[in-house]
Structures
1.
Amino acid sequence: MSATADFLPCEIEACDALTAFGDAQASLDGLLAGRKALALTPVLGRAGGDPVPLALRGSLDETMPPRWLGAAQMLAGQWPEGRWGHGRTPVVVTSCNFGVGSLYAYQRERDPRHLEPGAPHAAVDLIRRSLGWGDQLSIFSHACVTSHLGLAHAARLLHAGVADRVLVLSFDFLSPFVTGGFHSLKILNTGFPAPYAVRETGSIGLGDGAAFAVLRRGAAPSGGFTVEAHALFNEMYHVTGNQPDGSGFSACLAAIATATGGRRVWVKGHGTGTLEAGRLEAEGVARQFPQAPLVSWKGSLGHTLGSCGLVELAIALRALRGGRIPGTVGSSGPTFVDSVALEPFGAASFDGAVLTSNAFGGAHAALLLSAA
Amino acid sequence: MPALERYLHHVTVDWPSPDETAATARLRLADRFPRTALRRMTHLGLLVGHVLEGADLGPSDAVVYATTFAEARALEEYLVSFPAASPLLFQTSIHPGGVQQVLIPRQQSIARLWPMAGGERLVEQSLLAVLLEPAARVGWVGGEEKGTWLCDHGMASPLAFAFCARVSADPTGAIGRIGCSPEEEGDDPCPSLATLARALRDRQSLSWRSAGTCWRIEWS
């Protein structure tokens, strides 16, 4: 198995996120303090069920208007002005679940207002109309690597001369539809996630997340940040599993490693708290980046699903600016590999960071982030 | 918008009879899939599997997958499975299940999978993603399955169909071409996914203009 990286450097003009802690800076502060946003919550909201670890920005139950619409409006106050969705300033929207949770609300309550955002394009159209965008927008949905696809597509639009600036928006808010599904898979259980930790039972936590980035073609000026390259790979081994030899992880990580060009990097991994995937991922990172500390932030923020790649990029940018990288909150030793960083560490001795995400179907994504 | 062009090399469309269901599609296409996979596949997965057969994609290639509603029947059934949510239907209803249902049983890795959702401009945006993809061979795949009660609310497709066009930058032996070029005037509606599938099935050319660009699908 092999993959190649797209070397399409793009300046990050602006980037921010919303998690259960607040914006990217508040999320970073929570992580550096070792706090968990996850709290045990009935898996089906008002309808009850097992208590599972969720990091929410409000009620799990569906609302009208949907909670993610308010998050998009809040983020819109942070991104630069532009004729978004028109001409040479297109928008890329990514999500795993869009507004599908509202269909379960309709199923229960038969209130037709819940139908409006039920399909992906309908959910995005609600945001589009609310924010006054034009219709030049692309929508991607590839489970938990989906925001990486949005960023990679934006880089292609910029380097092909199709766009001057691209706004990438990613969101995934929890609902009983989603939590019920993960609970049925038994990976969302009563345990809190401990990414990369050796233990008897794996468990994940889920979180609300939304984030945006505005990208321009080329490297950032001094003081800025650049997404240098992207790598993607789809091993197609099993719906929820990976090649037992870790070759799927290795294919994507090897591709992004070629882009690092000798830079000293740290790695923000996917690290949801599952055992087998966590072990394969940690071992793959240790093979490709033997000197790099590996961290996951999902033991605190929860897994924000399709938005996680962009949410964690926004936090990584704040961490690099502040000079301290959060450790793997929620985990304690022993870990699958020695390079897992449990505590925060300084950013000064690194030239860049590799950020990775993985998804159902053995989908892998990675990007290389560097500071100018 | 710069001018971009690629070539069509292999096109397959499955446009079943309107009354076909997943169960009858399983009978029609039974010999094309492993038996263990067949019983779990959705109608859309079966149709996508059929059209992907001749695409000849390898681990360095890419797929751009366009669907507005994806696995509508799995979604409908998942919704009624609550409060005992079905793990199988949850997995199946997750976008982009149609392609993964096919490639996983075949153990067929691919470099990049670009699953795209969308409404009015889905064809245009997926065409752009195909034109920007540098892989030697790109599968431009799309389709829908017919919903039931979600269809009544505009949340599922009234039609079932799937298409796959293998695209490359090599004109040798091409049966058609796709592309876009700058065009000052015009603001046409973008063809629907079903219109695209019919045009591919019937080898009809398509062109439309939007946002300073002319988009086209032409046959040799």
2.
Amino acid sequence: MDLLNGFVALANFVLIPAIAYGSQLALGALGVTLIYGILRFSNFAHGDTMAMGTMFVVLITWGMQALGISFGPFPTALLAIPFGILGATALVLLTDKYVYKFYRAQKAKPVILVIVSMGVMFIYNGLTRIIIGPDDYRFADGERFVISARTFRDMTGLEEGLAVRTTQVITVVTAVIVVAALFWFLNKTRTGKSMRAFSDNEDLALLSGINPERVVLVTWLIVASLATVAGVLYGLDKSFKAFTYFQLLLPIFAAAIVGGLGNPLGAIAGGFVIAFSEVGITYAWKKVLTYFMPPALEPDGLVQILSTEYKFAVSFVILVIVLLFRPTGLFRGKAL
Amino acid sequence: MRTFLLFGAVACLILGTGFLQSWNSALLILNMGLVSAVMALGVNLQWGLAGLFNVGVMGFVALGGLAVVLISMPPVGAAWAAGGGQILLGLVLGAATIVGAVLVWARTLGRVRGWATAAVLLVGLIIYRMVLDPAVDAVESVDPALAGYLGGLGLPVLLAWPVGGLLAAGAAWIIGKTALGLRSDYLAIATLGIAEIVIAILKNEDWMARGVKNVIGLPRPVPYEVDLQNDPAFVERAAGFGLDATTASTLYVKLEYGMLFAVVLITLLVLAQLALKSPWGRMMRAIRDNETAARAMGKDVTARHLQVFILGSAICGIAGAMMTTLDGQLTPGSYQPLRYTFLIWVMVIVGGSGNNLGAVLGGFLIWFLWVQVEPMGQLLMSVITAGLVDGSWLKDHLLDSVQHMRLLTMGLILLLVLRLNPRGLLPEK
């Protein structure tokens, strides 16, 4: 029994990665949930919107690196994010103007919009692959660790190391700032309040003189920013690959539904629920358990419930459980 | 009339490929077109007839592929001896755990309920892993380079087609039970998830179908080219057509596949048309158009939806088995949602949702485009880049990206059809 080392191992292998991944998912799910609340459809192109935004950032980062611009110990990509957001915003606004607007005017059924978003998904996906290519790209630079495992061991004299990567700290800090700003915007500003009113009851909002096109415009702005930030954080933490971003669609949707579609608070909670379950269920617990158990009870196997390739199964199972027992999600969705 | 013209046009496209490129590629397009048409028929049943949004086509197609391995490959005796029985026992225990948990949930009440169910699941999971894991290791270590799996039943491969349908139907039942009756978006996400899980299982459970090591050399329902080439009677007949033995044998094999597929497609098409025109079909469309009214008339909407969802998925499973038979190998790594789920959707929407003939037409047309966009894009790109210096990075990059043009094209086609002609080429009557 060695509780201290046990906690360090737990933090190193489970808590820190899960918090970082959860923040990324939460930002992604916020985008999905906002679209659902305001535009009232499930946006299948969201993963590829993230990919497009991240691609802009990656290209600009490379340009900056070539010019010798750097951000000291931080990744250069952070400097490129505003440009990426601009690119993503232009992209989604153009898409809205030439694609979605038509169906909004027609008051098409939500499922038609979902199919339309499938078409948009194909186009974004193709564009990403044509412009940057289908391979894995790393674009993180700067200091790799805030604390490396060795420094931590030297500092504390513990057996277990605790490595905190810069990208993980940046992810959490950025996510907190972005989420705080978003909630301030939704709850305190006039435009934010009009968005919530629009999401609650479209007809009443129109009666009180809210301009729907403006609400939609602001929503796309926010969604493009959220998608770009989420995508860049994920890419910094892991790497950028078009297909991975497409696959993120499933955990992101699971997070949004688990939290309650249309509910921003729920999206954040859902993101962390999914992330913690994914990491917790696919992690081999032997190392941590050996510290917590008396020697006689130490496990022989890896104590890994599912192998890492099944991480999609985890989001899916949680989704099914929520659908079966609480179809509105943890936070009673559909009220922004 | 319109139907005839459009089908004629697609036939011309395929024949054109035969004259301009080669008959082998024309037949390849035709065969995969037949398979795609069957898949589109399945999706059309769900979407066109009942308005169900299934984006897990890939999973059902892959289950069909799995059926081919499980039915047609010869069993690996050593692997069965090493742990076959134990694996089966483990699977039965796993299933028993789930049934037990469901029973406990149904029979208990109050605070005990959650804990008792969780306890049953946890204990069941531990026993399941204790039984399964050593057996899996034993099986996978039997000659891993060639086998490392249990093999199949060694039955005729054609039997795998209906079995593929059954497997897909079983998966559809599970998913339909949970997600039908909720909002349509939920069914979409649930099917998207089940498809990813099916692929993950195929990739990782090596004892079942060798995972990413792939199963190759699946038995065929048609003769092998080599045997035909060594058959003097066949060579003589081929010479009569003015063909050499190699070309003739490849064409013959593909034609025979095409014939088998056509039989399946026509059978399913006739059944689908009969269903569409029957009282059942009218009821399904009535439910699709106004669920509340149908419910008020005493129709069990959820049960009908479950029925049509299972049927449509089964058709996708059959198509998946046909495709794997045609390929002669099961390669779990090659299943991509854009290709096996969303492309099928493009076929149905472009062809005309709600019209079976439309779905079939869309299957052929979109498959043709999917195959031919690449050479067309190559041509286009070489024209665009003609002015650029050879070897400049932009030119190389543009030429490299040609292979991704098809995604862009499919997206454009889908959006244009939805915008300009939302009912498709052959609208529902």
